Amino acid sequence: YGSLRQIANVILLLPPWPYCLFVTDYFTRTPRKLNAYRSFASVELFHFNVPEDTVVAVWNLITFKEQGGTFGDSCPDRNVTVYFRSGAPPVINPLQTRFPKDTIVPGSFAVTLTWTLPNRTTGVFNVTSPLPGDWFLAAHLPKDEGKISVKGLHEECQYLFQPQLIVQRLIGISVLYPGYFIDQMIPLHNRSVLYKVFIPNYISRVKVQLMDCNTKNRSGESCPVLLKIRSRAPPVHNSSAMDCRENVPCELEVPLPYWEQWYYILVERYLSSSDVYFLCLRIQGIYCSKPSVSKGSSAMNMPQSFGTAMGFSLSETLPAASLPNVPQNGSDQGSLLTAEDSITYLAPMADTNKCWPIRPTLRNELDTFSVHFYIFFGPNISIPPDRAAIFAINLMPVLDSGGVLNMELKLNVSSVRGENITIFGCLNHGMPLSLHDNTSVSCESESVSGFHLSINTTANITKLRIPYPQTGTWYLSLRSLCATEHGFEMCTNVTAEVYLRSYLTPCINDCGTYGQCKLLRTNNYLYAACECKAGWDGWGCTDNTEAYSYGFQLLSTLLLCLSNLMFVPPVTIAIRSHYLLEASVYIFTMFFSTFYHACDQPGIVVFCIMEYDVLQFCDFLGSLMSVWVTVIAMARLKSIIKQVLYLLGAMALSMALQLDRHGLWNLLGPSLFALGIMAIAWTVRTIRRRRCYPPTWKRWVFFLFPGTTIATSAVALYAFVETEENYFYIHSIWHMLIAGSVGFLLPPRAKPDVKVTPLKRRRGCGYQLCVNEHEEMGLVDPAIITINSICTS
User: Membrane-spanning residues where (predicted)?
Assistant: First the structure.
C-alpha cells in the first residue's frame, strides 16, 4: 500500500500538459533470486521498453526474503543495489576495481534499498520525461565472505527481486513541420503547450523562433514565456531554454542536433492572469551543403552520403493530405512564402560550414557479438588536409548492445613525410562532429558529447573500447592538424594514411588469461560478461590488486594434488589384508582426485588429462565409493553379499551424481545407509554372543575411536570451515584426514579357522568348546563358529 501511494503521489505531481490525453501502461517482470556481487556475470539484469511521449516512468522495486519455501523473517538484512541505464545495460563497478586501459565507462543511476519490514521492502525510482526505448536494470547483493556451503545442509536465505514499471504517456501532442509556422496560444487555464518535430538526417542546426507575442491581443515589448527544447523526450528543468522576456525576437538554436529523432518544444508561460498569443512558432532546419570535391579525387570512388540544401523533401516526409497548398520555389532558398489560413512555409537553408561526406561501413557478422565493420577500399584510409573524414558504424537495436565496441587507429608514419602531424578523432552517437574549427580538438558541444582519440608520429597507435554501447549509428570523425608554435593549424599538402579497424566483441580481450567470457541471457536479451579467477578482478579481469602469484598458484596445486598421496597407506593396508576390491577403489580415488584438482585450478598452473566434466565425475564417484566400501567392509559380511552391495552401491552412486553432484544427500545418504548395514551386522553379533562387538577394547581405543574422530573432523571442515580463500589448504587437509580415517577403520585380514586335530585332543573328562580366537576379537564372520573338539575321558 505504501509503495502504491508513493507512485500515486509521483503521478499527481506531473505538470499540467494541455490538450493531451494521458495513457497509463503497466509492465512487470518475474521475481528472480539475487546473488552476491562478484562480477557482472553474477547480477540479475532486467529489460524494459519505455514508450515514446512518456512524461513520467515510475519503477516499483519489490524485494522479499524466502527460506525453505516460507517468508525468511530470520534472514539477515542485506542491502540491494539497483542500477538504471537507458539504451544499454549499465556498466557498474561496486568493488572499485580498475578498468582495462582505453576503456570508456558510461554513466548510470544507482539506488540502494534498505529493509523496512522483516521480510519485505519496496522502493520507488521515478524518471521525469525518460528517454524512450530500452531501459535496463541490474540488481545484486553486497559481496559476501565467499563461504563454500554444502547444498542441502541448511535452508538457504534467498533474496528475491521484482521490478515493476508504470508509465504515463501523452497522446495527441501537436506535430510541427520544419519550415512551417502557425498562430498558437496558451490559454489562461493552462501553463504550457507542448509540440514535437522530427529532425531528419543531414541537419547541422535547428532554429526555433517565437514571433509576434502578445497578451489579450495587445502586443508587448516582451513575451512572458519560457521556450525549451529537448531531443527524444519532453523537456525537463535542465533542458536548453530561452527566456523570451529578455530576448526579442525569442530564438533558440540547437547546434549539431541528433539525426532521425523527435525534438520536443515546450512553451511555458510565466504566472499571469491573461492568455498569451504568439503569431508563429517557426522551426527551421539548417541542412548540410554538399562540398565541392574534385572529380579526380580518389576519396569519391566509394559509397558516400551527403546532405543537400533541398535534401529534405516535404512531399516525402509528410502525408499528402496534411501538406498545405503552398507554392514552393527551390531556387529561392530562405525566402518567406505565404499561403491561405495564415500558414507560412520557409524553405530550408544551407549551412555555410558544410558537412563532409559520410562513408558507410560494411557489417560482417561472424558470431554472437562478433561483428567486423569493414570500410570500402580499406582498412587503410587517407585523411586529406582540408577536410574531415567521417565514417558511420551502425549497431543493431538490442542485438549489439550486450558486447564491446572496439576502435583501433594506427598512423602510417612514412605517409606524413616528416611533418609534425596529429590525427584527432571524435566518436559520437547519433550525429557526427565534423571538427570545422581548424584548432578544435574537443569532442563535446552544448548538446553533444563524444569520445576523443588522437595519434601522432610519436604515439602512432590508439585504442578505444566501449562496453555495452548504445545502439544506433555511431560516427567517427577524423581530422589532421599540424602542430606549430601557435597551436594546431591546418596542414598543407600532407595526406595522412591511417589504418582503421572497428569491430564488436563479446568481452574485452576475451577476458585475458585469468578470466572467462560468458554469454548470458535474460528473457530474450543476450549479453556477455567476464568471470575472473585466481584473485584477478575488474571488467576485463585486468586488476591484479588481489591476484595470486605464480608461486602461490603452484603451491596450491601441489597441495591439492600431493595430499592425495595419503591414500597410499590405506592402499597398502588393504592389499596386505587381502581387501583387493577396496584397494582398487582407493587407487581409483587417488588417481582421479589428483588429476581433477590439477585441472580445476583457477590460474595458469593447470593440467588436464581429459575433459573437466569427466574428471569431476570420477573424482566425486571415487570419493563416495571409498566411504561406501570402507563401511561395508567394517560390517564383515559374507563375500558374496559384500560384492553385491559394492556393485549396487556403484550403480546407485553414479545415478545420484548424475542427478546432482553437489547435493548433501549424495554424501550423506550412502554413508548413512552403509552405517545402518554395519550397525545391523554388529547388533546381530552382539545378541548372538551376548557381549559387545567388537569385543576387545584395543580395537575400540586404537582403531575405531581415532578413525571416527578423524572422519568427523574432516566432514566438519568440509561443511563449516571451507571458504574460497582457504580452499587450497582446507581441502588438502580434508584429503589427508579422509585417507587417514580409512587406514584406521579398515578391519584387519580375516585369517582361516584353526581346527584342533584328534592327536592334539586333551586327555581328561568333560567337554571343551574350541572357537577361533580371531573371531573373538571381532575379526571374522560369526557364521563360521564351529565346535572343533569334544573331549572325553
Answer: 665-688, 700-721, 727-746
Burial of 13 (0-12, 13-18, 19+ CB in 10 A): exposed
Q: Which one, of 443, 437, 439, 440, lies nearest residue 407 by Cα? A: 443
The residues facing 283 across adjacent strands are 208
pLDDT tens-digit readout, 503-537:
999 999 999 889 999 999 988 899 999 999 888 99
Residue 301, burial from CB neighbour count under 10 angstroms (0-12, 13-18, 19+)? exposed
Return the pLDDT at 499: 92
Cell, residue 326: 503552398
Confidence category of residue 421, pLDDT binned at 50, 70, 90: confident
How many Cβ atoms sit within 10 Å of the Cβ of residue 107? 7
d(CA 770, CA 779): 16
Q: Dihedral, CA atoms, 523, 527, 531, 536, nearest 10 degrees?
A: -140
Cβ(463)–Cβ(405) under 8 Å? no
Q: What is the pLDDT of residue 286?
A: 59
If you write DSSP's letter for every residue of 446-488 in order, what string do you get?
A: SS-B-EEEEEESSS-EEEEEEESPPSEEEEEEEEEEEEETTEE
Helix or strand run (H / E) with residue 71: strand 70-71
CA dihedral 775, 776, 777, 783 (to 10 degrees): 30
Is pLDDT larger for residue 149 or for residue 233? 233
Q: Hey, what amino acid is at 421?
A: I
Most confident of 36-45, 238-247, 446-455: 36-45
Listed residue (622, 510, 603) closest to 549, CA to CA: 603
506 cis-preceded (ω within 30 degrees of 0) = no
E strands, 190-260, are 192-199, 203-215, 218-219, 225-231, 240-243, 250-255
Contact present, 619 and 738 (Cβ < 8 Å): no
All three cell numbers of 394: 551502425
> Which residues are within 8 A (CB) of 751 and not within 5 positions of it... i.e. 6 or more apart?
774, 779, 780
Cα 636 from Cα 747, distance rounded (Å): 8
C-beta separation of 90 from 83 below 8 A: yes
Q: Looking at beta carbons, which pairs linking 297-303 to residues 24 or more positions away fall under 8 Å?
A: 298/382, 299/357, 299/382, 299/384, 299/389, 300/357, 301/377, 302/359, 302/376, 302/377, 303/359, 303/360, 303/376
Q: What backbone phi and psi angles, to 5 degrees, belong to 225?
A: -135, 165
